[in-house]
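Before relying on records like the one below, remember that each one covers exactly one chain. Contacts with other chains, cofactors or solvent are not represented anywhere in the record.
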Amino acid sequence: MGSILVTGCSGLVGTHLVHKLLDKGYSVVGIDLVKSPSLPDHDNFTFDFMDLRDADDVNVLFNSIKFEGVINAFGIKGSPIRAKENPLDFLEPSIKVNTNIIENSHKHNCWLVFMSSVGVYEPAEVFVEDTVWKTLPSPNDWFPSWSKRIPELYLEAFKVQHKYDKWTIVRPANIFGEYDNFGEGATVIGATCRKVYESDGEIEAWGDGTPTRDFIYAGDVADGCINCLENKLHITTNLGSGEEISIKRMIETVSKVSGKEIKINWDTSKPNGDMRRKMSTKVQEQFELLPKLGFEEGIKETYKHYENIRYCNR
């Protein structure tokens, strides 16, 4: 089987991608600025430290290896405060990296799966793929949103001018999983796993627990990306769970899989945030891209992984 390039291979989805691609028999080249200890020691896996903003280095990479496909899981993580105060931290690397990856994927005629984000949408109760370019993103996600919108537009421009259409755009919902950040700046599920693990029977949570979110397990995102690559799906699609999970249910699920009896103290003086967020899954259903593992099983895997980390670090 051919070689697949995975950018952002040390990240939440990237790590899953590497393991799954190797299990399927591919040779994998992983690129990142740091090497995760969760990446495998495998004869068919090559890791390379590389700043993908350097066009010359990216050109050399593509000239030296004939890739069957590229899954671009590169992304910049950061809080809304960081995005507001340091917007170039999102825009500069994203535009340069994605420009280099797209141009080389076109030049070498290989299939590209570009991982965009739920952040490209304006605030809405249901996110539908073809609404993005009729709207503007939320002011709270302004710069991170454009860091993903611009590469999407760049792909469309390549299609118009060069007839290059060997690409898929995927827009995952709120991703969680084993290789997430559980420390400072963690997303809500990562932070909840930490709180529950450290709890002596009580935790505090913001709002009243009624808002709903679309959570998707990172392994299911990886499966969706690989499906798009192998079947050469020239589509733009959400990768969502197909169900709305309340914040209350999410916390209760983490508590349940932990085996603890946890009392949740809701601080209703704190904001709930948007009351409802859900990805439309009509395109996913059409192309058989719905999640395989699902929410509760994904939470079990995530919490078990966090327990093991804490146990090993004692």
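Residues 142-162 form the longest helix (21 residues).
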